From TrEMBL:
Membrane-spanning segments: 288-308, 362-382, 394-418, 430-452
Keyword Transport on entry: yes
Pfam families: CBS, MgtE, MgtE_N
Family under the similarity heading: Belongs to the SLC41A transporter family.
Cell compartment(s), UniProt: Cell membrane; Membrane
Topology of the protein relative to the lipid bilayer: Multi-pass membrane protein
Name of this protein: Magnesium transporter MgtE
Taxonomic lineage from the root: Bacteria, Thermotogati, Synergistota, Synergistia, Synergistales
InterPro entries given in the database record: CBS_dom, CBS_dom_sf, Mg_transptr_MgtE_intracell_dom, MgtE_N_sf, MgtE_transporter, SLC41_membr_dom, SLC41_membr_dom_sf
Superkingdom of the source species: Bacteria
Function: Acts as a magnesium transporter.
Quaternary structure and partners: Homodimer.
Residues covered by the CBS domain: 138-199, 202-258
Species per Swiss-Prot/TrEMBL record: Dethiosulfovibrio salsuginis
GO cellular component, one term: plasma membrane
Length: 459
């Protein structure tokens, strides 16, 4: 795969060196815009833009939209104001707004005066919505109709505006105040009698999002109801934008990436940036904070072991089973936490279901703990360790088995309790589930183990 990519890069750089416009035309014709963007991301920003100059304006904007956002920023910063203004006017409203919001302030102030007034106002309006909301990911590029149009008139209008719209499969019916009344699909209009009124064709029961709704909730609606686009309305029920299915996929992927990184105690912005595009220093900053905090918290585990130092000196064989308890507790707790975090993310459960979830996990943990306790007892009894004089192998097996069984139950309950508790406190469940879970399980596991061992062994 890499050899193939290197070959294409050499081809592109050769076309650039020879200024072969016909060669570029053939290259663009046989490659999807996303494939072209993948190739250009491997060259310098200036080389990438030099290649894009050979594409038509529409194709250039489409290829540019597929580039990584940080790479887009590098290109824009290197261009002149007028060239950036032309590029911005060709980009879809949501893409150019995302790019604009991440540009340095001096670049923002430079390019806005060079743009048409309508485009300036559109950028200002779309960029005013808080990050993470439906308003921040919507586009103003949509089609509207009025109730008085016939099907034939509506189709004719869509034919006129289609080149400037991202999608026309759904057309949204609005009144004079732009209040959303319903929608019609292109299929509805084509199949209807030419004189049928839009008012009689439109769907009045529709799914929508409000501008301040969470972007993940809005994307979930598109996924749940199999929509191509989702209308976004403001507090006055006026249509202000739509979220398209491709943007919803980006949101879902971003949220999944964020949850996965938080589960693994990785900080940072959690943007969808290729691993190799992030510097080692940035990787370091994203990871070090949680690791330091957890390492400090891990000192508690050391203090517990130190507190039972006399017990370990008298019965050193106990130390050989500590890794098994820690690993098993971590594994069972992680299983529980993963399932609960996913259920919270998909809205299958909420923080109000805390007791129900804990009871369900307890019913799962009991047989799991029993099975693993039997295995631990068998491990001790069948592979008898060297015992201090006068001690009972069966009692040791019982101590290890009971401790492991109790560890499984408590770890499973903590795995459910931590994310549910975080949701109750309006925190991100993924942020505390895995990082905190491992340390908590280690601490509780050691306390359980040494308490049971000390009681049963009579030490």
């Amino acid at each position: 795969m890499k050899k193939e990519m290197d070959k294409v890069i050499v081809e592109v750089l050769g076309l650039l060196a020879s200024e072969d416009s016909k060669g570029f035309a053939r290259f663009f014709d046989k490659k999807h815009p996303a494939q072209v963007a993948e190739v250009l991301s491997e060259v310098s920003p200036m080389e990438a833009w030099s290649v894009l100059r050979y594409a038509t304006r529409d194709l250039r904007a489409e290829i540019f939209s597929h580039l990584d956002l940080n790479f887009q920023i590098e290109i824009v910063i290197s261009l002149g104001r007028d060239e950036v203004a032309r590029l911005f006017s060709d980009l879809p409203p949501d893409d150019r707004t995302d790019l604009y919001k991440r540009l340095p302030e001096e670049v923002q102030d430079s390019i806005l005066p060079a743009m048409a007034q309508g485009e300036r106002e559109d950028i200002r309006r779309l960029s005013s919505y808080k990050e993470g909301t439906a308003g921040s990911v919507m586009t103003s590029d949509y089609a509207t109709l009025t109730v008085d149009l016939t099907a034939a008139q509506a189709i004719e209008k869509l034919r006129e505006i289609a080149p400037d719209r991202e999608t026309i499969y759904y057309s949204y019916v609005v009144d004079e105040s732009r209040r959303l009344l319903g929608y019609v699909s292109l299929r509805d209009l084509i199949l209807a009698h030419r004189d049928s009124k839009v008012e009689n064709l439109m769907h009045r029961n529709f799914v929508f999002a409000r501008v301040n709704d969470d972007q993940e909730d809005a994307a979930s609606k598109i996924q749940k109801y199999d929509l191509i686009a989702l209308p976004v309305i403001n507090g006055g029920d006026a249509l202000v934008g739509i979220i398209t299915h491709d943007d919803a996929l980006d949101v879902i992927s971003q949220e999944q990436t964020e949850d996965m990184e938080k589960l693994m105690a990785i900080g940072g912005s959690h943007e969808m940036v290729a691993y190799m595009k992030i510097s080692p220093w940035q990787h370091f900053k994203n990871r070090v904070g949680w690791l330091i905090g957890l390492a400090i918290l891990g000192l508690v585990s050391g203090a517990i072991v130190q507190g039972y130092e006399t017990l370990l000196l008298q019965f050193a064989v106990l130390a050989t089973f500590m890794p098994m308890l820690a690993d098993t507790g971590g594994n069972t707790g992680s299983q529980s936490a993963t399932l609960v975090v996913r259920a919270l993310a998909t809205k299958e459960i909420s923080s109000e279901d805390l007791l129900r979830v804990l009871w369900r996990e307890f019913l799962v943990a009991l047989p799991l703990g029993a099975v693993l306790a039997v295995l631990a007892f068998a491990r001790v009894y069948l592979f008898a360790p060297e015992m201090p004089e006068g001690s009972s192998l069966i009692v040791l097996g019982l101590a290890v088995g009971l401790a492991l069984g109790a560890q499984v139950v408590t770890s499973t309950l903590f795995g459910a309790l931590l994310p549910m508790g975080a949701a109750k406190l309006k925190l991100d469940p993924a942020l505390v589930a895995s990082p905190a879970l491992t340390t908590v399980v280690d601490i509780t596991g050691l306390l359980i183990y040494f308490t049971i061992a000390k009681s049963l062994l009579g030490l």
